[in-house]
Design goal:
The chain has 404 residues and is an alpha/beta fold. The protein is built from 13 helices and 13 strands. The chain starts with a helix and ends in a 14-residue tail after the last helix. It binds pyridoxal-5'-phosphate (PLP). Pyridoxal-5'-phosphate (PLP) binds next to helix 6 and helix 7. Pyridoxal-5'-phosphate is lined by residues 96-98, 125, 127-128, 161, 165, 190, 192-193, 213, 226.
């Protein structure tokens, strides 16, 4: 039996998270937004938080607001902590993922100073690989491309993603962390594609470090600050390479010398982005209200529908499936391949289906569980197959755009 639109509508009817879709703003009911893994939609809560941050916090309170703002990186971190299996005082929301990775890995490398190697999978997100390459170059250690399980006696730190940005594959966080610890190395997880879409238990896995961003499944808005996690017992032993005044023990003592704060704050740098942090705070509250177990279950059901429709409609048109077939082995996006992926991606956007393309030939379909209906997936997949069937994409020029 082919999957009908009514089947998708039935799934929406039975969806315990259906009401959350209406808490996101959309001025185009025809749009099929399958890129929530790249930039989450705008919620009414985040919009309200931003309006308040501008009018009341900045506009009215001016510099008097700092009494309330100064602790935001820590407070928003504490709100995020339960979503990733961390405790209070172990997470800061600050800087970008890239900068946070630089800070925690440089600190961790110094902790394992006698070991000459960093390990990262060759398919890891580019910024992670580049930051590690830069650290390796500056500190005279080597960067080896390999899976976490290849770590050995020479490895200081391993970095890997919980959900692979390209394939959507979900890592076994506990088993991988244990294997890395067995050889005496430290494990840093990148949660960028995982937080807000799958259950993550950093404490349960005994993870040492983690970083991630808030603008994907946490819906914090474009360019919203990232976050970092340092396990409580490691904090006194790790030193951030950036000695900024927000990391200073007695910040407003403004003394002549740097003394790092005894707590997670030692990983702060400078003045935080208050407006954005207030939006992130509201967004994380919304994700928390939806519940991470329910979000994970819906993410699996949505991507199951994507895979089912891929089998029926897209596989016969020359597409391949890159993501794991078993729903419990992936996050909330599905990667499919096609030799003409770039032009198909652009034609899809023109047809009101937002997905993204990753080189060389990958099309990512990310129906964010908090803001996507099953019929939106059905409609998006339907438009995708129609445009490929009709050869619409072949009428587009071959050059790719700067942002894909
Ligand atoms: C999205 C993403 C990033 C983003 O880093 P920024 O510093 O926010 O640009 C980093 N790593 C991974 C794995 C990502 O998915």
């Amino acid at each position: 039996m082919p999957t009908a639109r009514a089947d998708a509508a039935a799934l929406d009817g039975a969806d315990p998270l259906a009401a959350f879709v209406d808490r996101f703003l959309s001025d185009d009911p025809e749009l099929c937004y399958l890129d929530g893994n790249s930039l989450g939609r705008l919620s009414a809560d985040a919009r309200h938080a931003l309006a308040t941050a501008i009018d009341d916090d900045w506009g009215r309170d001016l510099v008097r607001g700092w009494g309330r703002w100064i602790d935001l990186p820590r407070r928003v971190g504490d709100r995020l902590a339960p979503l990733i299996g961390a405790g209070a005082g172990e997470v800061l929301v600050c800087d970008s993922t890239t900068v946070n990775l630089y800070k925690v890995i440089t600190a961790a490398l110094a902790q394992r100073g006698d070991r000459p190697e960093l390990v990262v999978p060759v398919g890891e997100f580019p910024t992670d690989r580049y930051v590690l390459e830069g650290i390796a170059c500056a500190h005279g250690v080597r960067l080896r491309f390999g899976e976490p399980v290849t770590a050995g006696d020479a490895t200081a730190v391993v970095v890997a993603s919980v959900v692979d940005f390209r394939t959507g594959a979900l890592a076994d966080v506990a088993a991988t962390t244990a294997a890395v610890h067995d050889v005496g190395a430290l494990m840093c997880w990148d949660l960028s594609h995982a937080a807000g879409s799958v259950v993550v238990d950093l404490a349960g896995a005994g993870a040492d470090l983690a970083v991630g961003c808030t603008y994907k499944h946490l819906c914090g808005g474009p360019g919203a600050p990232g976050y970092l996690y340092v396990r409580a017992d490691l904090q006194p032993r790790l030193e951030s390479p950036i000695w900024g005044w927000f990391a200073q023990d007695d910040q407003f003592g403004m003394g002549p010398r740097f003394t790092p704060a005894p707590s997670i704050e030692r990983f702060l740098t400078g003045t935080p982005n208050v407006v954005s942090l207030l939006a992130v705070d509201a967004s994380i509250a919304l994700v928390t209200e939806a519940g991470i177990e329910r979000l994970q279950a819906k993410g699996r059901a949505l991507t199951e529908l994507v895979v089912q429709l891929y089998d029926e409609w897209l596989a016969p048109l020359g597409f391949g499936l890159l993501s794991p077939r078993a729903s419990h082995e992936r996050g909330a996006h599905v990667a499919i391949t096609h030799p003409d992926a770039h032009r198909i991606g652009r034609a899809a956007v023109a047809a009101g289906v937002i997905a993204d393309v990753r080189p060389p030939d990958v099309l990512r379909l990310g129906p964010a569980p908090i803001s996507t209906r099953f019929v939106e997936v059905w409609d998006g997949m339907d438009r995708l197959r129609r445009l490929v069937e009709s050869g619409e994409h072949e009428r587009l020029p071959r050059e790719r755009s700067r942002v894909t």
